[in-house]
């Protein structure tokens, strides 16, 4: 059974930083593209970043202006999202997903809530 | 502003069929057969129900079907059941997600 378990969310002040983690099991992690998708309260889904199997290719949402960085550790079956200079509009549930390519996100974690507020 | 346009809401009675549209452009929906659909119940993570326009993942009932014509993709839910009441999101390569549609079972 595929499992994706996110952690690291919480309350942070504007301008602060946070690191999200996602531990994967039940599939061959090192052979899978992975993606972070977020959902602001009461809003729709937004692709934040994705990364290829060995981490050599990464895409980040342009509007993030370099504040977020996706990475992975295949030895630990883990996906990460480093977030800095956080703003109120970054408040959202962040989901870790598998990515079989061409906008197909097969499996989703339960999500971790990031709240940016003073 | 979402990349793809979906109706905000649709509704139907149990047993009926409803269709949810997803309109893009000739650079995304119209150009590629890479449209996926996701079902999201309140407080839950989204779940993939259709990919590559019409393919169903294992375990998804055949009441869910997908199609495409020109720049518009559609998700049809036949034989509506109470548990189908949820938000539905389309997604198309390379543009991203639609704004979501709330399906209400009357």
Computed structural class of chain A: mainly beta
By DSSP (H or I, 4+ residues per run), the number of helices of chain A equals 0
Number of strands of chain B: 9
Helical amount of chain B: under 10%
The share of residues in extended strands of chain A comes to: over 45%
Return residue spans of chain A where pLDDT drops below 50 for at least 5 consecutive residues: none
The biggest sheet of chain B, with number of strands, parallel, antiparallel or mixed sense and barrel status, is: 6 strands, mixed
In angstroms, what separates the terminal alpha carbons of chain A? Answer: 40 Å
Q: Strand portion of chain B, in percent?
A: 35-45%
Helical fraction of chain A equals under 10%
Keywords:
heterodimer, A: 118 residues, mainly beta, 6-stranded mixed beta sheet, 4-stranded antiparallel beta sheet, 10 strands, 0% helix, B: 106 residues, 9 strands, globular
């Amino acid at each position: 059974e595929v499992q994706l378990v996110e952690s690291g969310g919480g309350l942070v002040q504007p301008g602060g930083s946070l690191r999200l983690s996602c531990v994967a099991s039940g599939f061959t992690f090192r052979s899978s593209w992975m993606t972070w998708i977020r959902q602001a309260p009461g809003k729709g889904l937004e692709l934040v970043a994705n990364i290829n199997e060995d981490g050599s290719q990464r895409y980040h949402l342009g509007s993030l202006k370099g504040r977020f960085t996706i990475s992975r550790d295949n030895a630990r079956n883990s996906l990460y999202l480093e977030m800095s200079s956080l703003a109120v509009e970054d408040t959202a549930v962040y989901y870790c997903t598998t990515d079989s390519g061409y906008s197909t996100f097969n499996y989703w974690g339960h999500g971790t809530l990031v709240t940016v507020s003073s | 502003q979402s990349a793809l346009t979906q109706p905000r809401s649709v509704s139907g009675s149990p047993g009926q069929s409803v269709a949810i549209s997803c309109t893009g452009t000739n650079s995304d929906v119209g150009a590629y057969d890479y449209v996926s659909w996701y079902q999201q119940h309140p407080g839950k993570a989204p779940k993939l129900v259709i990919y590559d326009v019409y393919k169903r993942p294992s375990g998804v009932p055949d009441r869910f079907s997908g199609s495409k014509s020109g720049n518009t993709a559609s998700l049809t839910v036949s034989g509506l059941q109470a548990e189908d009441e949820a938000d539905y999101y389309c997604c198309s390569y390379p543009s991203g997600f639609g704004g979501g549609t709330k399906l209400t079972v009357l």
